[in-house]
Design brief:
With 194 residues, the chain is mainly β. The chain folds into two domains: 79 residues, no CATH class; 94 residues, Sandwich (Immunoglobulin-like), CATH 2.60.40. The protein has a four-stranded mixed sheet with strand order 4-5-6-7, with no helix packed on it. A hairpin with a 5-residue loop joins β8 and β9.
Length: 194
């Protein structure tokens, strides 16, 4: 079966329309726009559903949510089941109980940013103390871990010294010096709720 419009180019509209018993249009398939040559699958009343012998496998709702493996998606994309990535599907998406956000970075001894985004660093006047300020605060305090980078002739370790929703204080320590802290490069990661 071939459906052909009367004009060529983007002004052409040609589509197959579906109506219910009361004569109300419920949807169409085809080029329903005079602004482009796209082909649409449109539901005027209900959802757009991809159905197989296994039942509904994809549902696009009138609210703009899309569900794979669910007929009632509550987010822009909701997937019930495993997700695989990569050319051969060798990578899997991580799962979690919470909707989390991650900020990570590498900081120089002077407080400069080597790697990472979404934060700024203040090097406090007292030696070995750094304040990581998150550009967008977490709703509550994130979990933060820091590791001092190895330097020739100097062994340091890093600890958190106060974490709140908008910032984390990192202190670097020299275990061979009882006086305590010392400047040095370090890595950190902050994981918390969105």
């Amino acid at each position: 079966m071939r459906i052909q419009g009367s004009v060529s180019g983007v002004l052409n509209q040609t589509y197959l329309t579906f109506y219910n018993g009361a004569g109300t249009r419920v949807g169409y398939v085809g080029d329903g726009s005079t602004g482009d040559n796209s082909v649409f699958l449109d539901a005027d009343i209900g959802d757009v559903v991809l159905n197989t012998s296994a039942g509904r496998v994809l549902t696009a709702t009138s609210t703009g949510n899309v569900g794979i493996g669910t007929t009632t998606p509550q987010s822009k994309l909701e997937v019930r089941g495993d997700i695989r990535f990569g050319p051969s599907g060798e990578y899997r998406a991580p799962g979690g109980e919470e909707n989390l956000r991650i900020i990570r970075g590498v900081v120089t001894a002077a407080g400069g940013i080597i790697v990472g985004s979404g934060f700024t660093v203040s090097h406090v006047a007292s030696s070995g103390t750094y304040v990581i300020n998150f550009n967008t605060a977490f709703p509550s305090a994130p979990s933060v871990a820091a590791t001092a980078q190895v330097q020739p002739g100097l062994v340091l370790f890093a600890t958190t010294d106060g974490v709140v929703s908008g910032s984390a204080t990192i202190r670097l320590w020299n275990p061979s010096n009882l006086a305590g802290s010392a400047d040095g490069p370090f890595h950190f990661i902050a994981i918390g709720p969105r």
